[in-house]
Write a structure and sequence with these properties.
416 residues, alpha/beta, seven-stranded mixed beta sheet, six-stranded mixed beta sheet, 27 strands, 20% helix, binds adenosine monophosphate, binds magnesium ion
């Protein structure tokens, strides 16, 4: 028999709530250093390492927010005012003259405001006749103008460091005429699956074997986050093989992800191994699925020992690992997890104690959010994740839920 570790000799090894576990993780992590300069398109999914300072105003000049007429507000009276139309201003072709008293210029959306004019009257409010436009009363001074620098002012912080770039950020950077930005280097994540029963795809299954799906799930989740990934394959439940794998991973990556081998029965020797090579900060979380999830470090590499069950892998990844990877990648501030209420379409059995993450199908029907369970909820049933579009989150103290009662849901789409 293997010797029991100190943690095992304690009456009960502590099990953390979801929020305590998240706190324990985030209080330890600090972002990786290292950066590179990339072209705007390559910044998609990357984290800004420096503030992006606006080198110009956006918009660059005062311009019209509507199609209509540029007028001098002082000309407008209490009744309908007739103005002489002296030209047209297009977005790419400004009106170069001056709008004098009693005059107006026809103007298109985005066209610079001609000199002399200060107000835009929308086309629909006017009528025109023989080179004149008739403006009804009730206009407001300065209406329908977009002022230079209103969106981004020259010299100001257009995007703060720590921002992860999505489509809007790429467009915003381009709107400033900036061709490249400084981003953090990609996080390097090594991962492997553990289990004597695991077969890699491409060969027939032997007796008692299962295909290793977790490495593909993790490949998908990590690729989508923009990590540099190191797939180390399957490692047998063998102390020497595991030690070699942990050492190699720790030498090559910022983060090590493993799946399997953390549940009762297999846990002891992995825990002892990690405690010998590094440190295990915690081992158990009060969640379902995914109760055994190890967090710690080996050398400078952070370690997340995920459960083996395929659904538990994704639950623990989304609830703990993903935000940890974002924090390590320099994302700051981290977005708060967003949850909202939906009515349970059916009753759900739950025992108080653990926080449960069920897989749900959320639909908005007649203006109401209604969520039903997405098929069989076993922690090995990956199909439930595929058929679901959200987690149904039942907090620790929650018991049975009756049909129609409100439950919290967390959309998968918001998890990326
Ligand atoms: P474990 O956490 O190692 O006890 O594994 C729990 C369950 O998940 C067992 O049924 C394993 O066969 C299964 N499992 C573990 N690793 C994988 C994997 N990489 N792919 C698919 N199933 C797995
Ligand atoms: Mg195993």
């Amino acid at each position: 028999m293997e010797q029991k570790s100190a943690q095992d000799r304690s009456p009960r090894s502590p099990s953390l709530s979801t929020s305590d576990a998240r706190r324990a993780i985030f209080e330890r992590l600090s972002p990786i250093t290292g950066w590179e300069r990339v072209a705007v398109r390559d910044a998609l999914g990357r984290v800004l390492a420096e503030d992006v300072i606006a080198p110009c105003n956006v918009p660059a000049h005062d311009n019209s927010a509507m199609d209509g007429y540029a007028v001098r507000f002082a000309d407008l009276g209490h009744d309908e005012t007739a103005l002489a139309v002296v030209g047209t201003a297009f977005a790419g072709k400004p009106f170069t003259g001056i709008v004098g008293a009693g005059q107006a210029v026809r103007i298109m959306t985005g066209a610079p405001i001609p000199q002399g004019a200060d107000t835009i009257v929308v086309q629909e409010a006017t009528r025109s006749e023989a080179g004149r436009v008739f403006v009804p009363p009730g206009q407001e001074s300065g209406q329908n103008l977009r002022l230079a620098g209103e969106d981004l002012a020259i010299g100001g912080v257009a995007l703060p460091r720590g921002k992860r770039c999505g489509p809007a950020e790429l467009g915003l950077i381009a709107s400033l005429g900036i061709a490249d930005v400084v981003v953090r280097r990609r996080l390097r994540v090594a991962f492997f699956s553990t289990g004597d029963e695991l077969a890699s795809i491409g060969r027939p299954l032997g007796p008692g074997e299962v295909y290793d799906s977790n490495r593909y799930t993790l490949f998908g989740a990590l690729s989508r986050l923009g990590c540099d990934i190191l797939d180390m394959g399957v490692v047998q439940d063998d102390p020497a093989a595991l030690e070699a794998a942990f050492r190699e991973a720790a030498g090559n990556a910022d983060v090590i992800l493993t799946s399997g081998g953390v549940s009762v029965g297999e846990a002891d020797f992995i825990r002892e191994l990690v405690n010998r090579l590094g440190e295990v900060a915690f081992w158990k979380i009060d969640i379902k699925p995914g109760r055994p999830m190890a967090f710690g470090h080996i050398g400078d590499a952070w370690l997340f020992g995920l459960p083996g069950n395929p659904v538990a892998v994704l639950v623990t990844f989304y609830q703990f690992v993903q935000d940890a990877l974002l924090a390590l990648s320099g994302v700051s501030p981290l977005p708060e997890p967003v949850m909202f209420e939906a009515a349970a379409a059916e009753s759900i059995h739950k025992r108080p104690g653990r926080r449960e993450f069920l897989r749900g199908q959320l639909a908005t029907t007649g203006g109401r959010n209604i969520v039903r369970l997405a098929g069989t909820q076993g922690s090995g049933v990956l199909r439930s994740m595929s058929e679901a579009n959200c987690f149904i989150v039942l907090p620790e103290d929650c018991g049975d839920v009756a049909a129609g009662e409100p439950v919290l849901v967390q959309l998968f789409d918001g998890l990326v």
